[in-house]
Each structure stands twice: as C-alpha cells, then as structure tokens.
Design goal:
It comes from Minwuia thermotolerans. The chain is of the alpha/beta class and 259 residues long. It has 10 helices and 10 strands. It has one domain: P-loop containing nucleotide triphosphate hydrolases (Rossmann fold). The strands form 2 sheets. The chain has a 6-stranded mixed beta sheet, sandwiched between helices. Strands 2-1-4-5 form a 4-stranded antiparallel beta sheet, with helices on one face. The structure holds adenosine-5'-triphosphate.
C-alpha cells in the first residue's frame, strides 16, 4: 500500500524573539483528513508554531511544505505574496481564539461570510447571500441575524460566525488557536460538538492549538506535546493521553486528573 503523502510538512521550524526561543527545530507532518492537536502549558510556543506554519509569521529557520490544490508541493515561504494570500483565503482557514481577530465587527454577519467568497472572485449577490445564509445555518446562527453585526452577538455566536467565514470557501486545512477558549463551559461543549461534526462531514484537515486536553481528546486523532518551544512527545491522542511516555506529558495529564 502506498502511503498518502502529507498535506503539510514542517521541517526544523524555529522562531526566536530576542533571547526567547519560542519554538525550536519543530518537525511534523499532517495527512489529508487528519486533525492534529498541539498541547502544552502557557508560553510553551504553541501559538508561535501555529503562526509560523500558517504563514502569519516567518520563522527564523526551517521550512513549511504544502501540497497545493494542483498536487505540487511548495515551500509556503517560497510563494509570491499574491500566491500566499490566495492560499490563505481559499485552501486554508484560520480560527482565532478571539473572534475580534478573525471577524470584521463593523459589518454584518452575512457580509463577514460573503466577503470571503468575493475575495475568491464570486460576484453574484444572490448566490453570495444564499451561501452566507446556508453557512450561518450550518453553524446554527439563525438566518434572521444575517444583517446584524457580530459585535451584537454572544461570544459563542461570534465564534460560530468566524467558523462559517472560514469554511465557506471549502478550505482543505484549517488552523485553530484555542477555538473554544474564553467561552463558558456549556457554550464550549456545543461549539466543540459543532466543530467535530463539521470536521468529519467535510473531511477537513486541521491543526488545533489548545491547552485543554479534553478539547484535544474530542477533536484530534494525533497529538503533539510542546514544552519550552520543543515537541517532547507525539502520537495518537488516546495513546499519548492514556499512556504518556515523557515526564512532562505525565505531569500535564496527571494535573488534569487532580481534583
Ligand atoms: N511577539 C512576541 N514578542 C516577544 N516574545 C513573544 C512574542 N510572541 C510570543 N513570545 C514569547 O514566546 C514564547 C512562546 O509564546 P506563545 O504565545 O507561542 O506560547 P503559547 O504556548 O501559545 O502560550 P499561551 O497558551 O499562553 O498562548 C513566550 O515566552 C512568549 O512570551
């Protein structure tokens, strides 16, 4: 059987801020349809890694190889600016922890979803509006809120609009930074459920940064554990969480189990 080639592969990614080495020599790959979690305590470098591999930030060393829609594998930092921008708008999505970073609060929910379609060349107002209604419905935002601005929505609803905005262009890979962070527990659970359903239905690949092992357990088949900028353990999520090998992972897991 031939192995499925990776969709994205990071090789030796390092990023420093002055004296701080936020991520050091990180390598991993993700295959189509896989959901990879990145866990670790605050400051371990998760967000920096996510920003580097999603081309929001250039690493000091290393490369990120991505299998483009045409089947060709390219280093994302070797793409021209327009190529990279197109990739980020079409084939990739980015769900930020704070919806303010991923939504335009001053325009309607419908426009937030529709403008991603306009950015990829769709011009027919009726089609754009009906796609926006469809996507808002899929994330359980009622159609009668389509003309309201996200800053009139609850945190959970804003996050759902952000998800719709990202998925409307049918990306193959979605980066998520603490997608359920900062929400009430019951809202988190519903959002997680929704995300889990969408990821499965659309056969999405995703890289999910979270400090919450329960989120990782529910969403991710594969898990990487980061500590002080390095990956200390990686493997199948259930294996890593049920039988952690590295002392740091053991500590992380046991700290959650403490009353
Ligand atoms: N723009 C920046 N300038 C300077 N230092 C930074 C910057 N961004 C991150 N750092 C530092 O890099 C290290 C890793 O931070 P990062 O935010 O990637 O960790 P994290 O695991 O995502 O943490 P958290 O869960 O709290 O968001 C930290 O020491 C942080 O202070």
């Amino acid at each position: 059987m031939t192995a499925v080639p990776p969709l994205l592969e990071a090789r030796g990614v390092s990023k420093r801020f002055g004296r701080i080495e936020a991520c050091r020599n990180v390598s991993f790959s993700i295959r189509p349809g896989e959901v990879l979690g990145v866990v670790g305590e605050s400051g371990s470098g998760k967000t920096t890694l996510l920003r580097c591999i999603s081309a929001l930030m250039e690493p000091n060393a290393g490369e990120v190889l991505y299998r483009m829609n045409d089947g060709e594998t390219r280093n994302v930092f070797g793409l021209s600016e327009p190529e990279r921008r197109l990739l980020m708008r079409t084939d990739w999505g980015f769900v930020h922890q704070n919806p303010r970073d991923g939504l335009r609060m001053g325009v309607s929910a419908g426009a937030n979803v529709g403008e991603r379609l306009m950015a990829v060349g769709q011009r027919h107002y009726g089609n754009i509006r009906s796609a926006a209604i469809d996507w808002l419905d899929r994330v359980e935002v009622s159609a009668d809120r389509i003309d309201d601005r996200p800053d009139t929505f609850s945190g959970g609803m804003q996050q759902r609009v952000q998800i719709a905005r990202n998925l409307v262009t049918h990306p193959r890979l979605v980066f998520m930074d603490e997608p359920t962070g900062g929400l009430d527990v019951s809202v988190q659970a519903r959002l997680l459920d929704l995300l889990r359903g969408l990821v499965a239905e659309l056969a999405l690949s995703a890289i999910v940064v979270t400090h919450d092992l329960a989120v990782a357990r529910l969403l991710c088949q594969q898990l990487m554990v980061m500590r002080q900028g390095e990956i200390v353990e990686q493997g199948l999520t259930d294996q890593v969480l049920d039988d952690p090998q590295h002392p740091y992972t053991q500590l992380l897991v046991s700290s959650v189990l403490q009353p």
